[in-house]
Design brief:
- There is one protein chain.
- By secondary structure, the protein is α+β, with helices and mostly antiparallel strands.
- It has one domain.
- The chain is built from four helices and six strands; from the N terminus they run βαβββββααα.
- β5 and β6 form a beta hairpin.
- It is globular.
């Protein structure tokens, strides 16, 4: 399973390899289609819904609701707060994910229930 935004600073108990730092993934500015990209991320299927309040690791005075929830588009897993970090701090996405989002014209594809159940197992291994 491909993952995005599972940065070391965000506190999951298990990080995908290789572990990345959010500090190494901050872009110089927003991408041209940031609004569409973040909408795609926001519209993913929620696999694990966490009722939590996370601190913004780059601006600790800011809080993010349900930030550690895990979402998917059927091919990628990401934390719910990834769209926040892309929007607010210009965090970059893996080029393959960005290409997929654009190829799909910013629309989350339908994913069948069997696939979502399998992905939930993958997400649980990352989150717990």
């Amino acid at each position: 399973m491909r993952t995005a935004g599972m940065f070391a600073e965000l506190g999951q108990t298990r990080h995908p390899e290789p572990v990345e730092s959010i500090a190494d993934n901050i872009g110089a500015g927003p991408i041209e289609d940031a609004e569409l990209v973040t909408r795609y991320l926001d519209n993913g299927y929620v696999l694990i819904d966490m009722m939590d309040v996370e601190r913004d690791v780059l601006d600790p005075e800011q809080e993010i609701l349900s930030g550690s929830s895990i979402m998917t588009d059927g091919d990628w897993l990401w934390r719910q707060d990834l769209s926040y970090y892309v929007r607010r701090h210009h965090v970059t996405l893996p080029p393959e994910l960005l290409a997929t989002i654009r190829e799909r014209r910013y629309a989350i594809p339908p994913v069948d229930e069997e696939r979502l159940v399998a992905l939930t197992g993958d997400a649980e291994r990352l989150a717990f």
